[in-house]
Amino acid sequence: MELLIYALASLALRAYAEPVSPAEVKLYFEENLSQGSEAYLPEDSGYAEKIIPRWNSLGPPKYVVAVKPATAVDVLQVIEYASNQSIPFLGTGGGHGYTITTSGVANAVDIDLGLFTSVTVDALKNTLTIGGAVTFGEILDPLYEAGKEIRS
Ligand SMILES: *[C@@H]1O[C@H](CO)[C@@H](O)[C@H](O)[C@H]1NC(C)=O
Ligand SMILES: *[C@@H]1O[C@H](CO)[C@@H](O)[C@H](O)[C@H]1NC(C)=O
């Protein structure tokens, strides 16, 4: 009897701790993020075309799922879900970020911010608000048109 209880308890524990598969993570994103969001496994046909590649291939992070959230609320939900499931994640903007620690990121979710491309200049408040995937070259024209400039 004791053995049976022990066996059942360890089974239950194992079931509880079972990590979700990349396919399940992708499905969660497809079903639960807002319309316009996209999710890919690295072997999916759209992956190479739709997901921002990493410019520096030295010690790259290893992703099992890439997600392109459509709204800021989607980004929050991705982070909350990944945290709940103990899945590491990293955001990708332009793809040029440099650090020597990315090789420590494995079995992770790539939060591709490629749908966040807005550039807004408020000339009166002297502020520039940009989406997570905006690169430096994309802010120069809007700034110039607003009569502003920025140091490089
Ligand atoms: C979508 O979210 C709901 C609520 O959290 C959850 O019950 C459902 O399983 C999710 N869909 C998938 C495919 O995981
Ligand atoms: C994360 O876990 C909390 C606590 O169990 C739950 O309330 C919340 O709905 C979960 N969020 C997601 C996005 O899975």
TrEMBL record:
Where's the FAD-binding PCMH-type domain? 57-152
Q: Which UniProt keywords apply?
A: FAD, Flavoprotein, Oxidoreductase, Signal
Recorded superkingdom: Eukaryota
Q: Give one Pfam family.
A: FAD_binding_4
Similarity comment: Belongs to the oxygen-dependent FAD-linked oxidoreductase family.
Which PANTHER family has this protein been placed in?
BINDING OXIDOREDUCTASE, PUTATIVE (AFU_ORTHOLOGUE AFUA_1G17690)-RELATED, FAD-BINDING PCMH-TYPE DOMAIN-CONTAINING PROTEIN-RELATED
* Cofactors (names): FAD
Q: Quote the InterPro entries the UniProt record gives.
A: FAD-bd_PCMH (IPR016166), FAD-bd_PCMH-like_sf (IPR036318), FAD-bd_PCMH_sub2 (IPR016169), FAD-linked_Oxidoreductase (IPR050416), Oxid_FAD_bind_N (IPR006094)
The name of this protein is FAD-binding PCMH-type domain-containing protein
> Where is the signal peptide, in residue numbers?
1-17
- Please verify whether the record's keywords include Flavoprotein: yes
